[in-house]
Amino acid sequence: MKGDLFSSDHMVQPAITPGMSVQNAKSIRYVVNGEMLARQGAMVAYRGNLQFERKGQGVGGMLKRAVTGEGLPLMAVRGQGEAWFAHEAQNCFIVEVEPGDEFTVNGRNVLAFDASLSYEIRTVKGAGITGGGLFNSVFTGHGRLGLICEGNPLVIPVSPQQPVYVDTDAVVGWTARLHTSLSRSQSIGSMLRGGSGEAVQLKLEGEGFVVVRPSEQTPQKEH
Fold first, then answer.
1. N or C: which end of the chain has fewer CB within 10 A?
2. Rounded distance, CA 64 to CA 71, Å?
3. pTM for this model (two decimals)
4. Is pLDDT at 7 greater than 70 in this prediction?
5. Cα dihedral sign for 206, 211, 213, 214?
6. Strand runs labelled E in the chain
Protein backbone atom coordinates (compact mmCIF):
# COMPACT_ATOMS: atom_id res chain seq x y z
CA MET A 1 0.00 0.00 0.00
CA LYS A 2 1.21 3.47 -0.86
CA GLY A 3 0.04 7.02 -0.29
CA ASP A 4 0.26 9.83 2.25
CA LEU A 5 -1.82 7.82 4.72
CA PHE A 6 1.08 5.39 5.17
CA SER A 7 3.77 8.05 5.63
CA SER A 8 5.80 8.38 8.82
CA ASP A 9 3.55 11.28 9.85
CA HIS A 10 0.74 8.80 10.56
CA MET A 11 2.52 5.49 11.12
CA VAL A 12 2.82 4.39 14.76
CA GLN A 13 6.46 3.75 15.63
CA PRO A 14 7.78 1.34 18.29
CA ALA A 15 7.44 2.70 21.83
CA ILE A 16 10.58 4.25 23.30
CA THR A 17 9.51 4.88 26.88
CA PRO A 18 6.88 3.31 29.16
CA GLY A 19 3.86 5.24 30.37
CA MET A 20 2.08 8.16 28.76
CA SER A 21 3.13 10.16 25.70
CA VAL A 22 1.44 12.28 23.05
CA GLN A 23 0.92 10.19 19.91
CA ASN A 24 -0.24 13.19 17.88
CA ALA A 25 -2.27 16.35 18.42
CA LYS A 26 -5.50 14.36 18.87
CA SER A 27 -4.46 11.24 20.77
CA ILE A 28 -2.43 9.96 23.70
CA ARG A 29 -0.47 6.70 23.74
CA TYR A 30 0.04 4.73 26.95
CA VAL A 31 2.50 1.86 27.28
CA VAL A 32 0.93 -0.09 30.12
CA ASN A 33 2.96 -2.24 32.52
CA GLY A 34 0.66 -2.62 35.49
CA GLU A 35 -2.26 -0.21 35.78
CA MET A 36 -3.46 3.19 34.57
CA LEU A 37 -6.79 5.00 34.49
CA ALA A 38 -8.71 6.61 31.64
CA ARG A 39 -12.04 8.13 30.76
CA GLN A 40 -14.60 5.45 29.93
CA GLY A 41 -15.08 5.13 26.18
CA ALA A 42 -11.87 6.99 25.33
CA MET A 43 -9.85 3.96 24.22
CA VAL A 44 -9.65 3.92 20.41
CA ALA A 45 -7.14 1.07 19.93
CA TYR A 46 -4.90 -1.28 21.88
CA ARG A 47 -2.57 -4.23 21.49
CA GLY A 48 -1.10 -6.66 23.97
CA ASN A 49 -2.57 -8.33 27.03
CA LEU A 50 -4.79 -5.65 28.55
CA GLN A 51 -7.96 -5.81 30.63
CA PHE A 52 -10.45 -2.96 31.01
CA GLU A 53 -12.58 -2.53 34.12
CA ARG A 54 -15.28 0.02 34.84
CA LYS A 55 -14.47 2.24 37.83
CA GLY A 56 -17.93 3.60 38.66
CA GLN A 57 -18.21 7.37 38.90
CA GLY A 58 -14.47 7.87 39.28
CA VAL A 59 -13.45 11.50 39.07
CA GLY A 60 -17.11 12.48 39.15
CA GLY A 61 -17.67 10.67 42.45
CA MET A 62 -21.29 10.94 43.50
CA LEU A 63 -21.29 14.61 42.65
CA LYS A 64 -22.85 15.90 39.43
CA ARG A 65 -21.93 19.11 37.72
CA ALA A 66 -25.01 21.31 37.77
CA VAL A 67 -24.70 22.38 34.13
CA THR A 68 -24.62 18.94 32.50
CA GLY A 69 -25.81 16.69 35.29
CA GLU A 70 -22.93 14.31 34.60
CA GLY A 71 -19.88 13.05 36.40
CA LEU A 72 -16.87 11.45 34.72
CA PRO A 73 -16.85 7.63 34.76
CA LEU A 74 -13.40 6.07 34.68
CA MET A 75 -11.99 2.73 33.65
CA ALA A 76 -8.88 0.95 34.90
CA VAL A 77 -6.56 -0.53 32.29
CA ARG A 78 -4.36 -3.37 33.57
CA GLY A 79 -1.76 -5.69 32.09
CA GLN A 80 1.06 -5.31 29.60
CA GLY A 81 0.54 -3.64 26.25
CA GLU A 82 -0.20 -0.36 24.51
CA ALA A 83 -3.41 1.64 24.33
CA TRP A 84 -4.40 4.79 22.49
CA PHE A 85 -6.91 7.30 23.87
CA ALA A 86 -8.82 10.18 22.28
CA HIS A 87 -12.13 12.01 22.70
CA GLU A 88 -14.07 13.69 19.90
CA ALA A 89 -10.84 14.71 18.11
CA GLN A 90 -10.02 17.22 20.83
CA ASN A 91 -6.41 18.32 21.25
CA CYS A 92 -4.35 16.35 23.78
CA PHE A 93 -1.78 17.57 26.29
CA ILE A 94 0.18 16.09 29.19
CA VAL A 95 0.73 17.68 32.60
CA GLU A 96 3.61 16.44 34.75
CA VAL A 97 2.45 16.45 38.37
CA GLU A 98 5.34 16.37 40.85
CA PRO A 99 5.36 15.86 44.63
CA GLY A 100 3.99 18.99 46.28
CA ASP A 101 2.06 20.04 43.15
CA GLU A 102 -1.68 20.39 43.07
CA PHE A 103 -3.58 20.78 39.83
CA THR A 104 -7.29 21.51 39.74
CA VAL A 105 -9.00 20.46 36.50
CA ASN A 106 -12.53 20.26 35.18
CA GLY A 107 -13.58 16.61 34.83
CA ARG A 108 -14.66 17.12 31.22
CA ASN A 109 -11.00 17.77 30.31
CA VAL A 110 -9.56 14.58 31.85
CA LEU A 111 -8.55 11.86 29.37
CA ALA A 112 -6.12 9.54 31.18
CA PHE A 113 -3.68 9.51 34.08
CA ASP A 114 -1.13 7.44 35.96
CA ALA A 115 -2.43 5.26 38.79
CA SER A 116 0.23 6.87 41.01
CA LEU A 117 -1.78 10.13 41.03
CA SER A 118 -4.36 10.79 43.73
CA TYR A 119 -7.53 12.77 43.04
CA GLU A 120 -10.51 14.07 44.94
CA ILE A 121 -13.60 16.10 44.16
CA ARG A 122 -13.87 19.61 45.56
CA THR A 123 -16.43 22.30 45.05
CA VAL A 124 -14.68 25.37 43.66
CA LYS A 125 -14.40 27.80 46.53
CA GLY A 126 -16.65 30.80 46.08
CA ALA A 127 -18.61 29.17 43.26
CA GLY A 128 -20.90 26.46 44.62
CA ILE A 129 -23.90 25.23 42.70
CA THR A 130 -24.80 28.67 41.39
CA GLY A 131 -21.36 29.13 39.84
CA GLY A 132 -21.83 26.74 36.95
CA GLY A 133 -21.74 23.57 39.02
CA LEU A 134 -17.99 23.79 39.49
CA PHE A 135 -17.13 20.40 40.97
CA ASN A 136 -13.50 20.05 39.95
CA SER A 137 -11.00 17.23 40.37
CA VAL A 138 -7.83 18.01 42.32
CA PHE A 139 -4.82 15.88 41.35
CA THR A 140 -1.78 15.42 43.60
CA GLY A 141 1.14 13.02 43.85
CA HIS A 142 3.68 12.13 41.19
CA GLY A 143 2.77 11.17 37.64
CA ARG A 144 1.34 12.25 34.32
CA LEU A 145 -2.13 13.57 33.61
CA GLY A 146 -3.47 13.54 30.05
CA LEU A 147 -5.90 16.33 29.21
CA ILE A 148 -8.15 17.17 26.28
CA CYS A 149 -9.15 20.62 25.09
CA GLU A 150 -11.24 22.00 22.24
CA GLY A 151 -8.55 23.89 20.35
CA ASN A 152 -5.22 25.06 21.71
CA PRO A 153 -5.47 26.13 25.35
CA LEU A 154 -4.46 29.51 26.72
CA VAL A 155 -2.11 29.33 29.72
CA ILE A 156 -2.40 32.65 31.54
CA PRO A 157 -0.05 33.65 34.39
CA VAL A 158 -1.76 34.88 37.56
CA SER A 159 0.03 37.18 39.98
CA PRO A 160 -1.01 39.05 43.16
CA GLN A 161 -0.88 42.26 41.12
CA GLN A 162 -2.87 40.87 38.19
CA PRO A 163 -5.79 38.57 39.01
CA VAL A 164 -7.41 36.81 36.05
CA TYR A 165 -11.14 36.54 35.31
CA VAL A 166 -12.29 33.54 33.26
CA ASP A 167 -15.56 32.30 31.84
CA THR A 168 -16.74 29.42 34.03
CA ASP A 169 -17.61 27.42 30.89
CA ALA A 170 -14.16 27.92 29.35
CA VAL A 171 -11.82 27.23 32.29
CA VAL A 172 -9.86 23.97 32.06
CA GLY A 173 -7.87 24.11 35.30
CA TRP A 174 -5.40 25.96 37.46
CA THR A 175 -2.40 25.41 39.69
CA ALA A 176 -2.22 25.31 43.47
CA ARG A 177 -2.25 28.38 45.72
CA LEU A 178 -4.76 30.26 43.59
CA HIS A 179 -7.78 31.67 45.40
CA THR A 180 -11.09 31.49 43.56
CA SER A 181 -14.25 33.56 43.85
CA LEU A 182 -17.12 34.65 41.64
CA SER A 183 -17.13 38.09 40.09
CA ARG A 184 -20.03 39.91 38.43
CA SER A 185 -18.73 42.11 35.65
CA GLN A 186 -21.85 43.96 34.62
CA SER A 187 -25.40 44.65 35.64
CA ILE A 188 -28.58 43.14 34.22
CA GLY A 189 -29.31 46.56 32.74
CA SER A 190 -26.01 46.50 30.88
CA MET A 191 -26.82 43.11 29.34
CA LEU A 192 -30.25 44.29 28.25
CA ARG A 193 -28.64 47.24 26.49
CA GLY A 194 -26.48 44.92 24.42
CA GLY A 195 -23.65 43.93 26.73
CA SER A 196 -21.61 40.76 26.30
CA GLY A 197 -23.83 38.72 28.56
CA GLU A 198 -20.83 37.41 30.54
CA ALA A 199 -22.47 38.26 33.85
CA VAL A 200 -20.40 35.99 36.10
CA GLN A 201 -16.75 35.01 35.84
CA LEU A 202 -14.44 32.97 38.02
CA LYS A 203 -11.82 35.25 39.57
CA LEU A 204 -8.39 33.73 40.31
CA GLU A 205 -5.96 35.51 42.59
CA GLY A 206 -2.50 34.63 43.89
CA GLU A 207 0.55 33.17 42.15
CA GLY A 208 0.24 30.51 39.46
CA PHE A 209 -1.36 29.68 36.12
CA VAL A 210 -4.87 29.20 34.80
CA VAL A 211 -5.63 27.15 31.67
CA VAL A 212 -8.52 28.25 29.47
CA ARG A 213 -9.91 26.67 26.33
CA PRO A 214 -10.66 28.98 23.36
CA SER A 215 -14.36 28.17 23.36
CA GLU A 216 -17.28 28.09 25.72
CA GLN A 217 -18.93 24.86 26.75
CA THR A 218 -20.81 23.00 24.04
CA PRO A 219 -23.77 20.73 24.74
CA GLN A 220 -22.79 17.19 25.76
CA LYS A 221 -23.46 14.56 23.10
CA GLU A 222 -25.78 11.69 23.84
CA HIS A 223 -23.95 8.40 24.49
1. N
2. 5
3. 0.80
4. no
5. positive
6. 19-24, 27-39, 43-54, 74-85, 91-97, 102-106, 110-114, 117-123, 135-141, 143-149, 154-158, 164-167, 171-175, 178-184, 200-206, 208-212
